[in-house]
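User: I've been trying to design a sequence by hand for this structure and keep getting stuck. Would you show me what you'd pick, starting by listing the structure so we're on the same page?

Assistant: Good idea, let's start from the same input. This is the structure you sent:
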């Protein structure tokens, strides 16, 4: 497509069409045109053409922004052609003036575009940007043109934001100095000038909202730029002019502006400025307390007064939260003495904390309309920016220095709230909710653990008197927010609730799974799931299969039924509970059959449209844990599981459900590993698919495919001799080992081949294997690769002998074995970690020096000694505990998504096989081998040892000999 302005204009017009055909055709033309040089410039010129309809120009501006995002600095793996430097220079010449002269909608898009360029090019590759912005700011300021002023400030705000988020480096500080030297003075000038305009406009009759709104927006942007420029450290210019800034900041917290505040829109504009001020003074409080101390008392008083007048409307939440955060910061600083005056803490509790902790209409609405967001804020701690949580954080902050006073005060408040509820439960139920919330939110977590404690109440007494009546209520749907609060309390203080009482309440928790409220049944599921994780002394689980056996069938039935409630079809809390129960319960046929049926039914449904990655992960974990635990108990379950799962897994493979492929391959690997030879023909069809190069194109699938390939190699090694399959497997190894991102996976394949096939089968391929490994060693050597190579060589040696190892390596190039030994094996042996790997490397190295003619040759004396020194270093490292706790399954992070990364199924985990099960102690093996060798060659080794082992290793070797009663000499 030519860069004809009229054709471009028509294309953008058609992209706005509601009809799909012209829209798609226009989008395809634009995508094709975007590959041509000067496309971005042509679109920008179209945006600048005032005769073109604004809708078309806006669509072009959005397209221009997206074009820059993908092509200004495309990633190394992008197939898109980058914008050429000559075009970039022209765009940079035009964009500032065009952005400032555009209408607000287009200005917004171009400002974002400018920021995208600035992210990559400012300041080094765009030295004219800041001078041009300052020049335009000066002109606009003289003309009182606040559209342009705010355009400049908005752009400056965007490009300076990086100073908030990037690590402090010399380069960043140099860029910051450049920005401060050029922009700090103009920023203060426009801030003070706008302040005078606001004051004069207000004093001359209040002013109109139309005039005041852009002025307040300008001050807000100045405050955000102030925040960015002060974030790393306090600049000298801002320290010298602190009075000017702080006086204006305080004025916006203490002055009312009736002309604006009389409308919701106007109030939001004023509140946004006040919130920005609160963030600035909080920043100074945190980072520049010494320089700021003279202003703290005045600001604290201003904020106390302000908060007393901030309504409970959700539209004012951000101001309330930022203001309370400032007081919280003050409460934990040396300025905390401000809270010591008589009556201050009770006043804060009465006028700030309790009003902000009480449920509001907005909270009830969120509870009913968006249960996932409610839980995210309430249970998962993402509510730090909500009034309820920040009010409790303020109390915690004050308690840092005034614990007794705060505890006594809040304890009294809790009793008053509970008394109010008792007087009229129907009307005053929110008082009970407030009391429960205070106890839960002010609980302190013990360092390094999950258990919590509180000084506010006797937990067990509070549980019996306040929580138990809610949990034992037969009406699971009455007062749902109170039920949710009670379940949350049980969950948070679960380790403090005696086991007999908790077990007695399990059936009540199971009942609550049938509550109509999504929050309530989610909290019930979460409570059960978290209870099953509680551990007592000795890391032993408090609750086991015996505890849940009496009601496990109704529990599982209720969990699956819970997902039939509207909006709970993909409830991640319920699915996580299913997974946890299956990991604890005794898996009988009565449990396994309905569970696998229920899980595969859900799986078939989510395959149609995978949209909740956390739910789907726990779904696959549930299938994996059910298969693992049922088949560990009774292998006769395997055919039933295969019958149930195969159709679902085939849907995933046949429809190329990208998000689920790694999961499907891991489940198939689990099933293959559990199967008994001969392998079913169904699996062998998948084996054929697995060997196709197309299957390995997506890196996100590689770890799961390797796991599946390993399972086949272990279970059906004889199949590799048929139809050239071993060549195909080694082709996969070759591809994987060539890249640093997949080389470890390549070694997994290779090690499994070496471990499971006879030497006669692999011998013809060894030169090819060594060639691939040595090529990679020469071209892209990494520590990880060298360690993997060492493990491979060790495994080859213990499986097929040192002679075959030396001979096959030297067949590639004469004497290369000794080169590899000297340059890689000996110096890197000490880097090996992991109990199985350390044993393997130590035993293989020991056999090499005690059995291999290549090392026992007189010419190799120096290598022999150095190798022994490395083995002793490896084995002398402090041993970690041999018996380690089985790691808990990690929680899947909230931000897990369907990205190009592999997500491991914990419950389908592969047990690491020990290739040297017969050798229990590698130290004893080494000493015994040396003793045998010494018996065959008496007197030969003391001198070699003294010349090649350092003093520490000589001592360590003598201690080993003494320990195992095996003298070398």
């Amino acid at each position: 497509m030519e860069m004809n302005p009229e054709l471009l204009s028509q294309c953008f017009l058609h992209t706005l069409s509601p009809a799909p055909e012209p829209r798609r055709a226009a989008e395809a033309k634009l995508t094709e045109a975007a590959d041509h040089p000067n496309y971005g410039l042509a679109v920008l010129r179209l945006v600048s053409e005032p005769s073109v309809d604004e809708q078309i120009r806006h669509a072009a501006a959005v397209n221009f922004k997206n074009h820059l995002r993908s092509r200004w600095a495309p990633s190394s793996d992008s197939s898109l052609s980058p914008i050429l430097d000559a075009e970039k220079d022209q765009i940079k010449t035009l964009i500032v003036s065009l952005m400032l002269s555009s209408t607000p909608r287009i200005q917004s898009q171009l400002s974002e575009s400018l920021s995208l360029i600035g992210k990559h090019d400012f300041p080094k590759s765009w030295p004219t940007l800041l001078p041009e912005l300052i020049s335009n700011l000066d002109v606009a300021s003289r003309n009182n043109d606040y559209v342009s002023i705010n355009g400049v400030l908005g752009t400056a705000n965007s490009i300076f934001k990086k100073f908030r988020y990037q690590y402090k480096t010399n380069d960043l500080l140099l860029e910051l100095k450049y920005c401060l030297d050029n922009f700090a003075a103009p920023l203060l000038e426009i801030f003070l000038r706008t302040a005078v305009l606001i004051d004069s406009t207000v004093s001359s009759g209040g002013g109109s909202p139309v005039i005041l709104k852009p002025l307040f927006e300008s001050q807000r942007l100045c405050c955000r730029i102030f925040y960015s420029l002060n974030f790393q450290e306090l600049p000298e210019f801002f320290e010298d002019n602190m009075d000017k800034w702080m006086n204006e900041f305080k004025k916006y917290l203490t002055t009312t502006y009736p002309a604006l505040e009389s409308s919701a829109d106007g109030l939001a504009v004023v509140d946004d400025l006040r919130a920005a001020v609160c963030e600035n003074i909080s920043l100074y409080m945190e980072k520049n307390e010494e320089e700021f101390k003279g202003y703290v008392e005045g600001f604290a008083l201003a904020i106390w007064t302000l908060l007393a007048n901030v309504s409970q409307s959700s539209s004012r939440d951000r101001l309330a939260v930022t203001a309370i955060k400032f007081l919280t910061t003050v409460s934990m600083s040396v300025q905390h003495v401000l809270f010591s005056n008589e009556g201050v803490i009770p006043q804060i509790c009465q006028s700030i904390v309790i009003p902000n902790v009480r449920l509001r209409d907005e909270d009830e609405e969120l509870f009913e309309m968006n249960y996932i967001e409610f839980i995210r804020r309430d249970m998962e701690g993402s509510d730090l920016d909500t009034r309820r949580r920040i009010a409790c954080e303020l109390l915690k902050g004050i308690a840092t220095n005034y614990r007794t006073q705060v505890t006594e005060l809040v304890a009294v408040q809790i009793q008053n709230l509970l008394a109010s509820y008792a007087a009229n439960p129907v009307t005053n139920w929110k008082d009970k909710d407030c009391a429960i919330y205070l106890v839960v939110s002010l609980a302190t977590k013990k360092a390094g653990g999950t258990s919590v404690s509180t000084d506010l109440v006797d937990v067990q007494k509070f549980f019996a008197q306040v929580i138990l009546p809610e949990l034992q209520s037969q009406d699971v749907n009455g007062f749902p927010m109170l039920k949710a609060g009670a379940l949350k309390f049980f969950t948070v203080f679960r380790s403090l609730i005696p086991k007999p009482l908790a077990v007695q309440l399990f059936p009540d928790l199971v009942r609550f799974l049938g509550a109509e409220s999504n929050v309530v049944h989610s909290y019930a599921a979460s409570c059960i799931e978290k209870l099953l994780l509680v551990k007592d002394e000795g890391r032993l689980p408090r609750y086991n299969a015996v505890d849940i056996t009496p009601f496990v069938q109704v529990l599982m039935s209720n969990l699956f039924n819970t997902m039939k409630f509207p909006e709970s079809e993909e409830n991640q809390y319920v699915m996580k509970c299913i997974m946890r129960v299956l990991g604890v319960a005794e898996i009988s046929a009565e449990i396994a059959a309905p569970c696998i049926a229920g899980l595969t039914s859900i799986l078939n449904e989510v395959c149609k449209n995978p949209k909740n990655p956390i739910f789907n992960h726990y779904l696959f974990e549930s299938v994996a844990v059910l298969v693992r635990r049922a088949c560990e108990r009774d292998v006769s379950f395997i055919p039933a599981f295969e019958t149930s799962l195969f159709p679902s897994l085939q849907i995933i493979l046949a429809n190329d459900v990208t998000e689920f492929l790694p999961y499907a391959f891991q489940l198939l690997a689990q099933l293959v590993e559990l199967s008994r030879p001969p392998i079913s023909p169904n699996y062998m069809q998948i084996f054929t698919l697995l060997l196709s190069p197309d299957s390995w194109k997506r890196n996100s699938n590689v770890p799961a495919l390797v796991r599946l390939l390993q399972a086949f190699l272990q279970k059906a090694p004889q199949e590799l001799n048929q139809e050239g399959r071993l060549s195909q497997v080694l082709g996969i190894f070759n591809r994987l080992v060539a890249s640093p991102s997949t080389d470890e996976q390549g070694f997994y394949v290779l090690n499994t081949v070496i471990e499971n096939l006879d030497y006669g089968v692999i011998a013809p391929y060894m030169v090819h294997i060594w060639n691939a490994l040595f090529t990679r060693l020469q071209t892209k050597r990494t520590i990880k690769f060298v360690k993997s190579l060492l493990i491979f060589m060790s495994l080859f040696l213990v499986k097929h002998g040192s002679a075959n190892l030396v001979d096959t390596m030297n067949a590639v190039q004469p004497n290369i074995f000794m080169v590899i030994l000297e340059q890689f094996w000996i110096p890197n042996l000490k880097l090996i970690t992991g109990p199985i790997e350390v044993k393997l490397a130590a035993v293989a190295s020991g056999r090499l020096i005690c059995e291999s003619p290549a090392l026992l040759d007189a010419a190799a004396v120096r290598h022999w000694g150095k190798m022994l020194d490395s083995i002793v270093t490896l084995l002398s490292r402090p041993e970690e505990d041999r018996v380690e706790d089985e790691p808990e399954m990690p929680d899947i992070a909230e931000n897990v998504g369907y990205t190009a990364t592999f997500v491991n199924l914990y419950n389908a985990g592969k047990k690491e096989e020990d290739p040297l099960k017969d050798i229990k102690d590698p130290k004893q093996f080494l000493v015994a081998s040396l003793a045998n060798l010494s018996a065959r060659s008496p007197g030969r080794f003391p001198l070699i040892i003294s010349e090649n082992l350092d003093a520490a290793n000589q001592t360590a070797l003598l201690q080993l000999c003494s320990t195992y009663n095996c003298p070398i000499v």
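That's my pick for every position. To get oriented when you compare it with your attempt: Residues 299-415 form one domain. Residues 63 and 784 are 43 Å apart (CA to CA).
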